[in-house]
Amino acid sequence: MIEAVILTIITASTPLLLAAIGELVTERAGVLNLGVEGMMIVGAVSGFAVGLQTGSPFAGILAAIGAGVALSALFAVLTLVLVTNQVATGLSLTLLGLGLAGMIGEGFVGTPGIRLPRLDIPGLSDLPFIGPILFGQDVLVYFSFVLCAGVSWFLFKTRGGLVLRAVGDNHTSAHALGFSVLKVRFLAILFGGGCAGLGGAYLSLAYTPQWVEGMTAGRGWIALALVVFASWLPGRLIGGAYLFGAVTILQFHAQAAGLAIPSQVLSSLPYLATIIVLVLISSNRTANRINTPACLGRPFVPDR
Predict the structure, then answer these.
(1) Is 302 within a domain?
(2) In terms of pTM, does the model score above 0.90?
(3) N or C: which end of the chain has fewer CB within 10 A?
(4) Structural domain includes residue 73
């Protein structure tokens, strides 16, 4: 029983972690992209459709990343080149993604999909309890941890990461030092879109290998909240994603156990937890000032 709960928590947490790490990099560059939900849902339908047509879940993964990058590129052009409002553009991107995914996926509803295979390491995957948990996951679970470690290393151990953080903290000074603010932000937005698309692919290829309209179910918004929860630090993001994944799964187990709690209340637990965590974090203003990118959401127009 405990093993099954842990396994489901891992699968529920992975798409949150993948989408959130991309948004973290985007926000570190000073851009607030509220279109994560839209990019995730388009990634989910693209990954499912291509995976089903080709018979390869890995082709589906590449298609999902491409779809997320394409939508994020649209956001980048609108906000960086045309200098539209980031909040309004991000919300519009979510609405566009939801509508586009519904149109693309209309013919795939109810069609059985293909599942991303799990690793099978002889002698390790068969170990009691720890075998399936540590050595029997699909490749994207392990990749999510590698991605977080790589992002942390890039942000705090490389010159490129220093430039990206400088752009997010003070784009005027970064521009004065000769760095291309728009280029850095454009690349960060594309990376965030690719990660969001990858998170969506995990939903339709590993979590539940099928296409259901609206299957992201607000996970993009939770990913946005996770970035704030983690104080824009990749290491904390892992704990936050698994905490929210656990809340999501435990409400299902509570319903299965027949607890005398309305199902609507249990279903709202992940979102209630999101609100509570954000309120608690907002009360610590000192930590917020230290870690929040100072130019987050502020447009930059270079000197002509």
Answers:
(1) no
(2) yes
(3) C
(4) yes
